[in-house]
Amino acid sequence: MRSFSYVKITGLFVFLVALSIYSFTLEPSTSFWDCSEFILSASKLEVNHPAGAPLFMLLGRLFSLLSFGNPQKIALTINFMSGFFSALTIFFLYHVIIKLVSKMSESATVIIGSAVIGALTFAVSDSFWFSAVEGEVYALSMFFLILSFWAALKWDEQFGQAGNEKWILFLALITGLGIGVHLLNLLVLPSVVMLMGFRKYGYSVKKLLLFFGLGIGVLLGVLYVLTPSVMALLSTFDLFFVNRLNLPLHFGTLFGVFFILAALTLLIYYFKKKQKALYELATLSVLFVLLGFSVYSVNIIRSSANPPVNFGEPNNIFSLVNYLNREQYPKRPLVYGQNYNSPLLDVNERTSYDFIDGKYLPIDLAPDYDYDERTCTWFPRMSSSDENHIRAYNNWIDISGKRVVAKQRNGEQKTIVVPRFSDQLKFFARYQFAYMFGRYFMWNFVGRQNDRQGKGNILDGNWLSGIDFIDDSRLGPQDKTPSWLKSNRARNTYFFIPLLMGLLGAFYQYKTKRETFFIVLALFVMGGLGLTVYINEIPITPRERDYVFVGAFLAFSIWVGFSLVAALSFIRQKLKTAKVTVPVVLVLFLAGPVLMAAQNYNDHNRSERFAARDFAANILKSCPENTILFTSGDNDTYPLLYCQEVENMRTDVRIVIMPFLAANWFINGLRNPKYNDAGLKMMLAQDKYEHGELAYVPVLKKFNRDTSWQEALHFLSLENNSAKVTLNSGDRVNFIPLTNLNLQVNANGKSGKIPVSLEGNKVLYKHELAFWDIISSNASERPICFVSKGEAAKHGLGAYLQCEGFVHRLIPEKSHSNSMFSIGKCEPERIAAKLMNEFQWGNISDQSVYVDWNTIVNLSVFQARNTFNEVAALLIQKGENDKAFQLLQKCADEIPLSKVPHDIFTIKQAELMFLAGYEKESKRLIDELERDITETLEFYSSLNEAQQLKLNEAVQRELYYLNQLIAVSAKFEDQTKREELEEKMKLYYPDLMKNVS
After folding, report:
1. Is this prediction's pTM over 0.90?
2. How far is CA 317 from CA 45, 126, 245, 323, 513, in A?
3. What is the distance between the alpha carbons of residues 274 and 950, in angstroms, rounded to a whole number?
4. Which is nearest to 639 in space by CA: 652, 650, 625?
């Protein structure tokens, strides 16, 4: 009884330790990537991107009430929710280990010690800690995973007792609920089935394979049979009731729900009457899974309320099905499919329904494609036809390939070389498994080089042990690592200790309790190998994906806990004494969780960091009143929406997300009022988008005259026969009758036309039409701005931009600057005032605040340093040197070299300081840059030829920086510095360029 009390008290202690760690290191505001979207969806019950997370949304709303009405605290409270459920995950992991170790030891000290070591190791592991302090779904999903495991062990513990079936029903319910957060919780199902199967029927190799296969079958059944079948049935009912019986929307869905409930109830009654307990329990389990899954009804309810953020617009059963199927995202083949160069033979149209004008009408989905069967393969790992991905495939492996005479879409035969099945396996093993899982696994239990995005070279994002002879052989001489890289706070080393502890624990469990070893192994395999197969990762990813593999890391942490049992067993055998328990517990506790916590704390502590929120606020502050703002990606979109939806900033700005312009629901949403914005005017009717008439339209040169986009769009909207052409398919479609157009723009009190050429465009696709429709219909009345100059340049508008700070405004005046760093037209005094006084910089200059790689990358994407430089240069041209220097110093203070590594803009900074008359400060900065660049080149020179070759771009960039320093010194007529730098160029250039050219 006392032991049981110690177990409970220690479990509470473990929970409080984990909760304290996460509470002290929480990010106080929003983060980059999807966090902003999840936080805003929870704050106001809005609809986030497919496939949604309704349970996260509901729980987040409850936690947001802890802000007590302060909008700036809402993100903190939802981040705290992640920390709270992460701490609960550690609590239940502790109890899972207790139950597993109890099968191998009877000592309370050993059992509790193992559970503490294993649970706290996972608590402070790199990937899990990362998710525990931000408002994302992975922390909550891991809670449901471990809760499922714990429930299965409770069933096992009470096996044979009356009423223990309640644990199976509880498990079924949380399985369904967990789907409403993320699919990660399903990974535990094979382990659960194995546990129950071994308990009921015993263990053998044959039964091991049987129950593991059955567990995978249950997982696939829930994912690909049960929930899709239910959704298909509900959608069939609603289609019939709405279109045939003329009943209101959702009537058929509700009828379908009652029909399913009635059918399951009758089955349960029948099996109970026939005393078929197993079938009765299985039917009840299906019912409880569906009860949990019904949380997705929240998406229909909230979407029907038309909230400001309504991604996917799942306001009826068909749109919810498309939402759950992630129809707006491209698909990758998993089992069988095309290679990257498989010729496309045919396009198979796919349709669904949407509720339009009181009826369900057909809508187009992304089509399926037919490829030449001779070029397709089993287990396709290299299917992307993107040129960058194809180059990456060839960089990762030597593709042996096979020659195939393949049929082209035009009927011609052509010989091509396609990857073999062995090539697929090689790419899977080397990149997808070893690099995209194995590297992450080593981060968590061996150590991490830095938090830079991994590119397959020796410089970025590798694992690092802290044992020099091992690290030197893989990553070059570590004693020559440049200080700016060595000081990266994510450089964490555990000296293989947690890895060896886990291997020791796994080996001991295998030798002493083989059936439970395979149960834990199943979770490790499903969370590692299984997910790697399922994700089928492309070779260039926008961010690291370690957070999805935390299920495997949890399983390995269980083995880390078992290392105590293993170590004590070995020591007691050798020393013939039992008086070593406490010392061994302390040693392993220090070697595992304490070492990892000490190493990981400074790069997982996000307290006082406001970078994502402040950068987004700067973008919004840059916009003139009532701006229409075009954004391009997650990090220049979701934090902006967070600022508007949660902190009520600049709600007059209407955000247009460029990648979503192909989606009918998004185009329709832009027309609707939102806060202080009345909605966007658009020339083309929504029903033409909805009915697929504008999927693509031909561009023909029928006329040659000056025509506005408004006239062209008006012509495109006509339904008469003369406004259409006949395609090869026989279809009659609208078209654009000329290639030279103009765009009427009003800005800064001036009105003018911007010429737009469609030469070279055979067709315009829906997203392009929507873009031009929005701009041409609104540019004469509202400011048009872009976060990315590149997005404007894609459409031929790059030369017609004016810098407004962190955005670029479309103006009817051409800039004649040819510099790639030009910010276009600019009013330097006004922008300088924003940079100096209005903008906030996320506390990144604070030495206690960790500036992670995402922050550094986004500073570069938003060209923060470049904007300071360009505005300062304009001030110098106007003779305002002191003001220019103040601006440059502000940049150096807010974005310091000690936190954000050198780049071409810091070299330009030094040059501008000199031109402003601040020679001393300029030379000081040049000395700092020289030190960093020299250290970097010295490190590159110490590498072998193969390592240098993989750093081709980085080497050339650093030599370019050195050359720019020489040019700056020559410009200043600093002969001594110039000669010093030229000597260094002579030292490094020949050897480095010999290997990388």
Report:
1. yes
2. 19, 40, 17, 10, 48
3. 69
4. 650
| Pure H helices in 590-681 | 595-604, 611-622, 638-645, 664-671
Q: Three-state DSSP class for 994? A: helix
Q: What are phi and psi of 802, to 5 degrees?
A: -125, 130
State the DSSP H helix or E strand holding residue 363, giving kind and residue range, or none if neither. strand 359-371
Q: Between the CA of residue 251 and those of 238, 242, 325, 454, what are the distances in Å?
A: 6, 8, 23, 51
Query: What pLDDT sits at residue 166?
Result: 94
Nearest to 513 by CA among 156, 213, 3, 143: 156
Instruction: Give the whole-angstrom CA distance, residue 375 versus residue 42.
Output: 46
The residues facing 356 across adjacent strands are 359
Low-confidence spans in the chain with pLDDT less than 70: 1-4, 576-578, 818, 996-997
Task: Give the tokens for residue 725.
Answer: 């052409």
For 12, other C-beta atoms within 10 Å of its C-beta total 12
Distance CA 604, CA 850 (A): 8
**The residue count for the chain:** 997
Would you call the peptide bond into 892 cis, given omega within 30 degrees of 0 as the criterion?
no
* Six token digits for residue 71: 């909008």
pLDDT at 997: 61
Separation of alpha carbons 165 and 835, rounded Å: 64
pLDDT attached to residue 280: 93
3-state secondary structure 676-695: CECCCCCCCCHHHHHCCCCC
d(CA 940, CA 952): 10
CB 560 within 8 A of CB 505: yes
Q: How far apart are CA 526 and CA 544, in angstroms?
A: 19
Write the CB contacts of 966 (distance below 8 Å, at least 6 apart in sequence).
Answer: 978, 981, 982, 985
Per-residue pLDDT, 1: 42
Query: Hey, how many other C-beta atoms are within 10 angstroms of the C-beta on 819?
Result: 8
H or E element at residue 565: helix 550-575
The tokens of 96 are what? 């899972």
Task: List the one residue out of 918, 900, 902, 827 whose CA is nearest residue 867.
Answer: 827
- Rounded CA-CA distance 535/549 in Å is 11
What are the tokens at 709? 């986009």
**Cβ–Cβ < 8 Å for 414, 406:** yes
DSSP labels, 706-763: -EEHHHHHHHHH--SGGGEEE-TTS-EEE-B--SEEEEEEEETTEEEEEEEE-TT-SE
| Cross-strand partners of 413 | 407
Asked whether 445 and 121 are in contact (CB, 8 A), the reply is no
The residue type at 721: N
Burial of residue 434 (CB within 10 Å: 0-12, 13-18, 19+) is middle
The closest alpha carbon to 9, from 108, 146, 128, 139, belongs to: 108
Q: In whole angstroms, what is the distance from residue 545 CA to residue 453 CA?
A: 10
Burial (CB count <10 Å: 0-12, 13-18, 19+), residue 405: exposed
Closest by CA position to 361, among listed 369, 352, 373, 350: 352
Amino acid at 984: K
Q: How many Cβ atoms sit within 10 Å of the Cβ of residue 514?
A: 14
Beta bridge partners of 742: 708, 755
